[in-house]
Amino acid sequence: MRFPEYRPRRLRKTEAFRKMIRETHLDVSDFILPLFVVEGKGIKNPLTSLPGHFQFSPDRLVKETREVVESGVTAVILFGIPSKKDAVGSQAYANDGVTQNAVKRLKEAYPELIVITDVCLCEYTDHGHCGVISHGDVDNDPTLDILASVSVSHVKAGADMVAPSDMMDGRVGAIREALDESGYESTPIMAYSAKYCSAFYGPFRDAAQSAPQFGDRKSYQMDPANADEAMREVELDIDEGADIVMVKPALSYLDIIWRVRTSFNRPVAAYNVSGEYAMLKAAAQNGWIDGERCMLEVLTSIKRAGADLIITYHAIEAARALQGASMKRSV
Ligand code: PBG
């Protein structure tokens, strides 16, 4: 049927009609909020390139997380920044490490909150790479044992789920095996499966003090030009036991999110990364765009592309915006 018989505008006439045929719905349970934790007491360092975000010491983290819980956000992902870094990132698996302490305290204060931990070495190594170095490059297999110990220590501290973001080959299998051997067979793994070597991680590396001190991450993170390779990465992670697979970043990779959604039968997460957030905030602060509308449009596009979960620095704001919208509708 064609115009004039078919007129798509008929169903766009009123908000009630638009809502009736709306295909994508954001929900507060879609969001995971990243949080940065440092050692010490009483610390709340604002992050210039991530407006509205901070590095917290564990005590402040517990206090400030009340706001997260009250906004309705149900999950956070923790990034720990230790005061002492070394070549193998030993603070990453220390039982009293910064992340382990933060997890314990958060779970004590908010048992219902889903606490996920990012599993990687770049915040913990003095060279800033995501694994141990030999002959000038990241050495894959020796890194696997360390990542497995890190994961077990996080879960021992109370983490509800671990999220390896290092991009070593075989790490999901190594982590699954270690968790199972330690009796944590019911703890899920959210794998950063298709993680690209992206320039959009800039503000995060300031926040997590994790920029590589030499070279770059091209020998382990994916080339932005590749899509078929992302399918192979996701397939491997699923074979090795990933419960949730992730695409990262989100906005320049919506096609990858869509392909993962349609090719595999696993929940899909997308990481709306620091540079994507900072870009939107900077434009909004300049008055060049409507920040709230653009945020909701961005998050909707990620969900429409096929993500079930979105890791986003907008989580609290988005939760409030959704709540505001439902209040408006009910009056
Ligand atoms: C650690 C890690 C990074 C991000 C999440 N985990 C940075 C990196 O790979 O350099 C980036 C998140 C963001 O930019 O918001 N490997």
Question: How is this fold's topology laid out?
Answer:
Elements: H1 15-20, E1 31-38, E2 44-46, E3 54-56, H2 58-71, E4 75-81, H3 98-109, E5 114-119, E6 133-134, E7 137-138, H4 140-157, E8 161-164, H5 171-181, E9 190-195, H6 202-208, H7 228-240, E10 244-248, H8 254-263, E11 268-272, H9 274-285, H10 291-304, E12 309-312, H11 315-330
Parallel strand pairs: 1-3, 1-4, 1-12, 4-5, 5-8, 9-10, 10-11, 11-12
Antiparallel strand pairs: 2-3, 6-7
Helix pairs in contact: 2-3, 3-4, 4-5
CATH superfamily: Aldolase class I
Rg over CA atoms, rounded to whole Å, is 20 Å
Class from secondary-structure proportions = alpha/beta
Beta fraction: 15-25%
CATH class: Alpha Beta
> What is the N-to-C order of secondary-structure elements (H for helix, E for strand)?
HEEEHEHEEEHEHEHHEHEHHEH
Distance separating the two termini: 38 Å
**Biggest sheet, open or closed, and with what strands and sense?**
10 strands, mixed
Distinct ligand kinds: ligand PBG
Overall number of strands:
12
Basic shape: globular
Note the total helix count.
11
Mean of pLDDT: 97
Percent in helix: 40-55%
The CATH architecture:
Alpha-Beta Barrel
Give start-end ranges of low-pLDDT stretches.
none
Overall number of structural domains = 1
